[in-house]
Amino acid sequence: MQFQAVKAAIQATLTAQANGFFLTVGSAQRSTSSDDLQVLPVVQVYFHQTEFDPARGTNRGRKNGDVTYKVALLIAAPSQGDISTLSQNPTFSEVAQAIQNMIPANDLADAAFDQLVSDVWNILENPVNIGACFGLGPGAFSNFWISSVQKSAPVTQGEAVVIAGSADITLRLNEIPVSATPVAGNGSDTKLAAAIDQTADPKTVGFNPNVVRDPKFSTEDLGQKVGN
């Protein structure tokens, strides 16, 4: 169905334009550890629902539907800090300063998630991508819209903090059911050809190859004074 083709096109576009900033995976469930997420954030596209409107379709045949996709976003970040002084017999004050200088994992994960949203949003909202319907060609769908983006609270997993979220995409497309018993249609030849009636009076109607001027008009009278 068309919603499957659109989902695959969105996923392919994100994969092609990720530029190494995130990893795009399919809709199948995938086990991802926090260590994997610290290397690359994960983006996942999956179909959520379709709402068909009877007013924009037919009982038999073409159906017009509003489709919703969810783009899952997942990021993780570890705590970072300069602990080189801790291996050089540091004093108590030096240890305290090193701990104070460490960047909290929550802040790193939060900033990384926001950047992931920016990267994905700009790819999806790129006018070139939307105009080409993500490679499917103009007219494959309409009314493309990112209706919302959500972010969860940070969750600690081992030495890392994980943040998950999603973006909701809505668009409108047509679904055309395949007939169970296909039947070839009958076409009609609509080519028009002019026919010359050799018996018609050329001064009143029809075409005549020997008449070079329309007999219904007298061009000699044009421009002459009429009346007194």
Q: Could you characterize what this model shows?
A:
It contains five helices and six strands. The protein is of the alpha+beta class. It has a single domain, classed as Phage tail protein-like (STM4215-like, 2-Layer Sandwich), CATH 3.30.2000. The chain is elongated and about 120 Å long.
**End-to-end separation:** 79 Å
Number of helices: 5
Overall strand count:
6
Helix content: 10-25%
CATH class: Alpha Beta
CATH superfamily: Phage tail protein-like
Provide the fold topology.
Elements: H1 2-16, E1 23-25, H2 34-39, E2 42-52, E3 63-78, H3 92-101, H4 105-124, H5 127-131, E4 142-151, E5 155-157, E6 160-175
Parallel strand pairs: 1-2
Antiparallel strand pairs: 2-3, 3-6, 4-6, 5-6
